[in-house]
Amino acid sequence: MTEIPSTLKDATLLKVVYGNYLAPRALMDVVQARRDEARERIVELEELAQTLEGKDDEFYSMLAVDLGIERNYAVVRWADQTLRKLQRRQRERRGASTAGAHSDADAERRR
Hints:
3 helices; 111 residues; 0% strand; mainly alpha; 79% helix
């Protein structure tokens, strides 16, 4: 049996992949919640890093903490970019539906 990579087991990623089945606001809420979790984790890991800093016997632990911090910063960047893209898409779709409504109204007036 092929093992599914852990990155594909992330609930947020699954919700994003199937985002077309969610209301736009619901998907944005999912992304915002994931960003908030990552920000909280950064604070926790940075506090841990302060307690480990300079301790020679914690050198390798610090490497792992550094990875956790970087991963969470990446999640925050991804979430910010994703939210901007979702908002832009929502505006464009609203604009397209409004333009379509105007076209329908114009057609009715011409009849």
